[in-house]
Amino acid sequence: MAAEDTQSWTISYKGMSSDNIKGLVLALSSSIFIGASFIVKKKGLKKAGASGTRAGVGGYSYLYEPLWWAGMITMIVGEVANFAAYAFAPAILVTPLGALSIIIRHAANSFPKLCIYAALAHIILREKLNVFGILGCVLCVVGSTTIVLHAPQEQEIHSVTEVWVLATEPAFLFYAALVIAGVLILIFHFIPQYGQTHIMIYIGICSLVGSLSVMSVKALGIALKLTFSGMNQLIYPQTWAFTMVVITCVVTQLNYLNKALDTFNTAIVSPIYYVMFTSFTILASMIMFKDWDRQNPTQIVTEMCGFVTILSGTFLLHKTKDMVDGVPMRLPVYTNEADGSDLEGIPLKCQDSLRSS
């Protein structure tokens, strides 16, 4: 009986395909670069805002700041790796690995002088990483590993026209229409009234648009992968249609992500953006590529448990980032912009933003 169970498990679990492994390596590389870029761009935005109009109120002085461009180049390198990862692996494998970039951002926020991994800072620089920070990192890694080991195999696609058929099915068209309508309502109705006070406005736009951009990036990545393998996909108009969607979505994301980073605290923006972006992307991938149709219920539940584990680790990292050896540090005191009183805690908005508003 035991031998039969072992044989049955071996048949059901075929391991990671070579494409999934390539996608995994590229996704990990992407997390390193993107995680570091958040901090560099943030520093560039703050420096530009000190001498010009802040991005949060519609300014573009950061375009003249070399530090912001350094972060932007780092982010582009990470996004290129991320772009390539989607060509090899399903979105449900690639997207949740963004939690690893959260770890890097946490390390950089804790040790801004060097912007390196928390582990290296702990070992080499003798910096203190509290037990809850270590536990948060472990939870993110365990959750990511769980998803990696149970991710579905990449769907065999032989032409960009096959992706176009998936993208034009009624279910995904309905989802895309809802996303576009929601984004337009947020931009034209909610931003003028609540953009500077409600963090979910900017992040909601980035996350909704991001889910469409990931699907288009995956389609374009597949087209380029097939082209490089000898099957030219550039002759199909669908390839260029996906390219235009990618450009439009990425520009929109960058614009409103800059506004979110400049207006609100990075420690709050990062986890909320990760959770919303990942959730909408997995939903879009389920609808368009039907990832879970190729999996049994056990694998699906395990992946969801892995995702929840990552969310728990992300929450723990940011909730305890100011603790030392499990004991809360005295939280910074800041001025409440409403009545001028002094409050203790982590402000929702950046202090530069509070002074400028």
TrEMBL record:
Sorted UniProt keywords: Cell membrane, Endosome, Ion transport, Magnesium, Membrane, Transmembrane, Transmembrane helix, Transport
Transmembrane stretches, start-end: 20-40, 83-108, 129-152, 172-192, 199-223, 235-256, 268-288, 300-317
Compartment(s): Cell membrane; Early endosome; Membrane
MF terms in GO: magnesium ion transmembrane transporter activity
Membrane topology classification: Multi-pass membrane protein
Principal location listed in the UniProt entry: membrane
InterPro entries xref list: Mg_trans_NIPA
Keyword ATP-binding listed: no
Record GO cellular component, one term: early endosome
Summary of the function given for this chain in its UniProt record: Acts as a Mg(2+) transporter. Can also transport other divalent cations such as Fe(2+), Sr(2+), Ba(2+), Mn(2+) and Co(2+) but to a much less extent than Mg(2+).
UniProt subunit comment: Homodimer.
Family of the protein in this entry: Belongs to the NIPA (TC 2.A.7) family.
Name under which the protein is recorded: Probable magnesium transporter
